[in-house]
Amino acid sequence: MASEGLDKSEETDHMIEKDAAKDRGSGLGDTKEIRAVFLSGFGGLNKLRVARKAMPEPLEGELKIRVKACGLNFIDLMVRQGNIDNPPKTPLVPGFECSGIVEGLGDGAKGFEIGDRVMAFVNYSAWGEVVCTPVEFVYPMPDDMGFAEAAAFPMNFVTAYMMLFEVANLRQGMSVLVHSAGGGVGQAVAQLCSTIPDVTVFGTASSFKHEAIKDTITHFIDRNADYVQDVKRISPEGVDIVLDCLCGENTGKGLGLLKPLGTYILYGSSNMVTGETKSFFSFAKSWWQVEKVNPIKLYEENKVIAGFSLLNLLFKQNRGDKVKAVMDKLISLFNQKKIKPLVDSLWALEEVKEAMQRIHDRGNIGKLILDVEKTPTPLMASDSTETSEAGEEEEDHEGDNGNKERMPFIQ
Questions:
Q1: What's the predicted TM-score (pTM) here?
Q2: What is the mean pLDDT of residues 231-260?
Q3: Which residue of 45, 87, 151, 270 lies most exposed, with the fewest beta carbons within 10 A?
């Protein structure tokens, strides 16, 4: 047991190391251990580190996957902070999507063979060298798709497709406003819109990203500009679909921009995150700014308001069959070269802090990927998370907060 003098964070790290030591002492050996990113507690970047854990084995109906690449999403940042409903207990291994090679099959797992290249959703624990997940959440990789692309594919493109086609019923001649147009979901939305004739895409993004995404966005709007006025200047009647990952005051703005029979979809709340750790003030401010929805007003104006959470759809509402049907359509579009995941950069597991900070700072264009086989640079290996079986994680020091707190990042 941890001594009474240990604080909660130190006690959690002690638990991680104790479990790993117990596995080694039982004769499992290095061949029965894997590296994984651990979140020791909710908070800042210092809560992340790389350590060893016991090799997972597939249960009935599961596949065992040797991971090659993992997707890093904004929801992972919110999980780290504990800025989600009903956060899980720590310590835990984060991550919800990965790609790799099937290494084992649990009893009753059908449709795949050992050696198959796959991409998969995982209910946490994706950020490790090996994961196990139910076969219903696993999909074959197209022959022309690399592992980094595959790790950038499921979360972003399924989210974009289902919002556009399952919820908003995108059709020819419609117009769409998407925030964070340079991010993974934003680029997936833009590419899918291009598969339908005469769809106009308004995208808000940092000005330095405009050149890189110019081929997928019809009208750029700088994230610091008054996007409501910019949209109305081009389209006085507004737009047919608003996809909002910001929340807060943007909810009212989005509803106000809808044409009659238009659809507003909330699929994120990044305005709640302003610093490295969870802020009650930011949370309260964001929700205070949300316009109170009046059903009578929606009725009078012929507008639709909706929400979308892919992870809840998969893991809480048991709609894996519906998601699989969407994945089949998306793989077909990829094979036709109509869509292609945009990978921003590759990071070693030991560089997870730097990767997550890049998302926090909104510096990415496309998806960030954790490459399990990538060797970290010497600088990051020494200054980032530790890949050790023992040792202390870096401490927060007073005076360092100026480097860690960031301005609100509205892309």
A1: 0.83
A2: 92
A3: 87
